[in-house]
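Appendix B. Raw example, untouched.
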Amino acid sequence: MNGAEVARIVLRASVGSTMLVHGIAHGRSIKGTAKWFKSIGFSQPRLQARSSAVVEVGAGSALVLGAATPLAASAVVGTMAVAARTVHIKNGFFITKEGYEYVLSLSAASVALSALGSGTASVDRLLLGRRERMSGLQRAALTTGLGLGAAAAQLAAFWSRPQPASTKKEPEQQAQTQQTQQTQESAQG
């Protein structure tokens, strides 16, 4: 086994197991995960919670096994793109401040893995033999395009940026603000 094969296995195992563990955690607490999705601006939060668990467990398992690697990697890219847009981009780069460093790294590793191919110790190799149907560049482009396309579709269908807490006003506060403005206008008029 050469260095490239070892690299493929390490990438598949690390990215795949990371996604798998996240998916299991989301699946074990659908109620809590749904509450979190709602808090970051998603409609249908229970659907989002279930979907995230299924996608993360499925993509993670497929990557670990080296099965449908470009598609599994695209699911990681899509999931990380959604996470970046909804949570991490606004916080800058560094993970210590909830930045996008982590999600970018998982996405880049997934695209690299897709470009490299799943390797000889994989389900893909068992099913497809030695034939590669696409070049590494084509696989990387497919992974990136499908992932970002799926992320854009999910965001367009289900997400709206939540209002910052400081701009949200309770009905009582709105009434008080209006009353204060009216009082000020009458005093001036």
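End of appendix B.
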